[in-house]
Design goal:
The chain is mainly α. Helix content is 62%, strand content 1%. It contains 33 helices and two strands. The chain has a two-stranded antiparallel ribbon with strand order 1-2. β1 and β2 form a beta hairpin. α24 packs parallel to α26. It is elongated, with a radius of gyration of 34 Å.
Length: 540
Amino acid sequence: MMSLFNIAENPRFYSTKRIVQTENGQSISPVSRTEAQAALLEYLHSTRNIQFTDAENMSKNSPHFLEKLLAKVDIDADIGQSITRYLCFHPINEFEPFFESLGLKPHDYNPLLPRDLMFLCDDDLLLENYHVLCNYGIARSKIGKIYKEAAEVFGYDYGVLVLKLKAYEELGLGQSFMMKLVVCSPYLLIGEVNADFVKVLEILRKEGVDMSRIEEHLSEKSSYDWSKLLALLNLFRHAGYNEKQLGGLISHHLAIFFEDSVDRIYLLIGFLLKFGSKMNQICSMFLQFPQMEFEEFFSNLRHCFLFLNEIQMEAHEIRNILRSHPLMLGSCRLKKPNTLRLALHAADKRMCEVIQENPQVLKKWVMGSKVERLQNLILKSRMQKTKFLLDLGIVDDSNEIGKALKVFRGSGAKIQERFDCIVEAGLSRKDVCEMIKASPQILNQTKDVLEMKIDFLVNKVGYPVSYLVTFPSYLNYTMERVELRLAMYNWLKDQGKSEPMLSLSTVISLSDKKFINEYVNSHPRGPEIWQNLKKEIYAE
């Protein structure tokens, strides 16, 4: 009870002095701590002849070591004298406060302690290279990270580290850039100038990226692997990015490459490939990447996948949505399934149906939004689609609306967007309406997919866009099927085993069985070439 009354005697709800405890539970006031630091400084500088600035940094920035020292002396007596007396008869391992003063925790530096040394003066190269980094302008508290990741640097002979720093400066890098670079990539100081780093610099400079922007995005808390970054940039190049596209990606989204997220980008690419995306689709996604942190985007995308899985959506439907709408999913932080079940008044099966009908509805189910009951959303969507179909004359009779609504998937706005996309490619509205009547499934594909297929037809195959009017179902076939059939047909034509003027519709629309029997098997090496092309195209 006495302790309770003692606390209550002070009516203030704040304190100007912080009392800390040593390892054995003894309370140490800030004044006593300052006296202990002064005694340690006096010992390190006057007795051990350590440079004053080094000794001061060690005494003021090694709290764990100081607490361990205080636990061994009588703190009820004069603390300064107690520590001085103790240190006279008990020499300390000077590497402990030294490493801690460099920003390392005991669990970090304990494995790094020399086994046969106690005094700093016995490792003159360690101190020499430490002073080179200090004099270069690197904060002492950040040098510990360099030691932990590249201890070899601190064993360099006199003058070697200075030359290595100058070698990087000769690449056109300023001292302020180098100060951050050395902390976030200490391994660059090992060996010769790092070739991967130089290649990354060349790519960035070629794309017009200023070094000051890179410096701005470098984080000294992170560790950068420039070989991985180089591999990622090359991956985008080999996947089809031209110089202008790569330059645009780097310039507009520089942060995602220097957000300590290169490994995450590889994970995202693997994640999307697993769900059926192609590298050209993934590259297109990065060109349109939203202005947000990559970590948040990746987390949202993963959360959406878990959400769809939890409401028991079929695996192939999840695959289709993730492949077709990665940007939208990565920009949405969905509410939890239980919250949406209550707000929508709907079971999992109904939610799955609504999402499959119009994946864009997920944007209305994000954290912080007011969710409408499902019945209202469905009614609005039906009205939009009905208006679209009647306005364009795709259905002439209101009795046909029910059948048409089942064929066209997506909201009215999305169907309109896809229709406009085909018109904007160079066709009249009348022609596109006729195409839709002949092959309505065309409008069940996303705008991006339609644009990609039209671009391939016009720019790769060499057909005019008007060819779609006579063969609208071209847009229903996958790009892999089209590429594989054309590659095989061209090979057979070169071998003199195929008619030279077969129409595109004939090449594409035949069933696999008939195409193989009539064309692939017409050459002895046909089946082998077919399988090789198939592996190559589907692997891409």
